[in-house]
Every structure is written in C-alpha cells, then in structure tokens.
Design goal:
single chain, 335 residues, alpha+beta, Phosphorylase Kinase, domain 1, Aminoglycoside 3'-phosphotransferase, Chain: A, domain 2, 2 domains, 5-stranded antiparallel beta sheet, 3-stranded antiparallel beta sheet, 52% helix
Length: 335
C-alpha cells in the first residue's frame, strides 16, 4: 500500500513515530501521537527543487512571518527522496484558506505579498540550482504565446471534424491576437526594461502562484505555502497577478485595484512608472491562451462541457477587463 511505503520512508528519515499517512493531492498529511506534519512532494529535477526549498529557507531565515520551517532529517538534510520525487516535511497548520471574494482577505494578501517580496531580497543563486527566470522575458514570452494561439488556429482548421469548443475558440482568435499585440505594444512603450534593470539588483524572487488556496490563515498569521512555481522576476509579476485574481469574473473596478496597490505600496513602494507595466501584464489574454494550451496541446480529459464553460466565462469577462486595464494604465499613485 502506498501510504505504508511513505510511512516507512518518513520513519527511516525523521525522528518521529507515524500513526497514519493520508494522501491529499500532492501532499501527505502525517499523523503522529502528539503532532501532525505535511510531507510535500515535488517532481522536478534536483536543481529546480533545490532552488524552491532554498527560496523557502531564505524567507524563513530572513524572518518572513508567513514562513513555515522545513524540518531537518536525521541526516540533517532539508529533504528526502521518495517515489522518484523530492519531498520536504513541515508542521501541519490547522487553518482556513484565503478567500478572494472577501475584501479583508484581499487586503491582507496584499500586505503579506509585499512583505514576502521585501524578505526575498538578497537571495543568492548557486551553481546547483536550476531556477525559473523571468527577468526581461515578458515581451518575448507574450510574443511566443501569441504565436501559440495562432498554432491553435492551425490545429482547428486542420481537423476534419470540429467540436463545439473548436468553433467557439476559432471565432475569437483574431480578436484575442489583436489584444495580445496591444499588450506587447503597451509593454514596449512602457519603461519595462529600465524598471527590470533596477529591480534585478535586489536579487529578489516571486511566489508566482499567489492564489487564495496558498494562503493559510492560522495562529493570527497568514502562512504562504506551495512555492512550486517560484521564479526569479520582478515583484510586479506577483502584484499584477493578485489584482487579476481579486477582480476577475465581473468585479473589475479601479477602487478595488487602488486598495490593493495602496496596501502593497505602504510596505513595498509602487512607483508611478510601474503602473503601465502592471496594466500591460494584465492586458495580455493569458486565460484565453491557457485554455487553448489545456485543450489543444496538453489535451486534458476534462470533457467538452468543462472547456466550453471555462471559455464562456473568459469571453463574458473580457470587455469589462479591457475597460478596467485602460483605466489602470492612466492611474496615478496617490492621486
């Protein structure tokens, strides 16, 4: 049994007695006589995995209050190998997850994110790390993704029998490619490169998946978990994503963005010239591209109805989002 094998590996590597192991997605809840732990597995190459746990340790050692300490093995290591994966053990937190439908949670998230970015500064990349790197790459990444949307079009046209999703997606491609080109143009006309030259000197990193379910409210703190997508990049990447996650699905309004920006900026200052960069990042049709990747390249078996519903939500939201992005681009910090 899988759980028994995991239990055995844990007891061989940590000075704990395990009563039960419960698998929950890509983690294991480890139940012991007097405490509980979380064993997090990651199926990356060692260099990438080592970068992730090194970033987590950097935050903890820098006294980031949202950190959960990694528990050392009997051999004084930060990780173990298990089932062709690497894994680390942390204390289990009985908590509620964040809720981006709740304005108080959103403001708290902005505060924690700003503190995370400040505490990430001074991170040293070593030779045995293989990190994701986003510095200076947004323009090229957006161009590549625009070309991938055009590849989805070719795949649709090459089909003898087209699905309902194919027809829905195909009819929107031209408009979304124009939106992508507009985002690229706006990024090029911003001070993106100059800002990256300034930000890269801080040697910081981004969480890169600051979703509500990666925030644990417990012990009168907010713990940040799941650094699997951690990336070396400007903090504006995470900040733009938080605004996007908080306001999508019909909640686009400049007042909501203002609250997030003001809270974040009260801890980690947002400069005037950075606003157009955030706006351009949000303008790119990332969700339209992503559902195409999932359907045409990754071929996830989620069913036609799932993809149709997902695409419908994206299309219903896009005009309000575009109007919001136009407003945000002209927004003046403190104005």
């Amino acid at each position: 049994m899988e759980q028994e094998a995991v239990k055995k590996v844990i007891e061989e590597n940590y000075p704990i007695r395990v009563i039960e192991v419960v698998k929950l997605k890509n983690i294991y809840k480890v139940i012991c006589p007097n405490e509980q732990y979380c064993l997090k597995t990651i199926k990356y190459n060692f260099g990438h995995f080592f970068f992730i746990i090194s970033a987590m340790k950097h935050l903890y050692e820098n006294n980031f209050e949202g950190s959960i300490p990694i528990i050392k093995t009997i051999a004084n290591k930060d990780y173990i190998e298990i089932k062709s994966c690497f894994a680390y053990l942390i204390p289990w937190k009985e908590a509620r997850i964040g809720n981006y439908d709740n304005i108080l949670d959103i403001i708290s998230a902005a505060e924690v994110l700003a503190k995370l970015h400040i505490k990430s500064r001074g991170f040293k990349v070593t030779e045995n790390m293989n990190p994701r790197i986003g510095w200076f790459k947004w323009i090229e990444t957006f161009r590549t993704r625009k070309d991938e949307i055009l590849d989805f079009k070719k795949r649709i046209l090459d089909k003898d029998i087209k699905s309902e999703f194919d027809y829905m997606y195909l009819v929107e491609i031209e408009q979304e490619v124009l939106r992508a080109e507009r985002a690229i143009s706006n990024l090029l006309s911003s001070e993106y490169v100059q800002i990256m030259e300034k930000h890269i000197k801080t040697n910081g990193f981004c969480h890169h998946d600051f979703a509500h379910h990666n925030l644990l409210f417990a012990d009168k703190k907010i713990y940040v978990i799941d650094f699997d997508y951690c990336i070396l990049d400007t903090h504006l990447h995470d900040l733009a994503s938080l605004i996007l996650r908080s306001l999508k699905n019909g909640r686009w309004n400049i007042k909501g963005a203002e609250m997030i920006l003001n809270k974040y900026s009260s801890i980690n200052e947002v400069e005037e010239e950075e606003i157009p960069v955030i706006a351009a990042f949000m303008e790119f049709p990332q969700d339209f591209w992503q559902v195409g990747i999932q359907y045409y390249w990754e071929k996830h078996p989620w069913g036609e109805e799932f993809f149709i519903n997902k695409l419908s939500k994206i299309l219903d939201d896009r005009e309000d989002k575009q109007e919001f992005v136009g407003e945000l681009r002209k927004y003046k910090m403190g104005g």
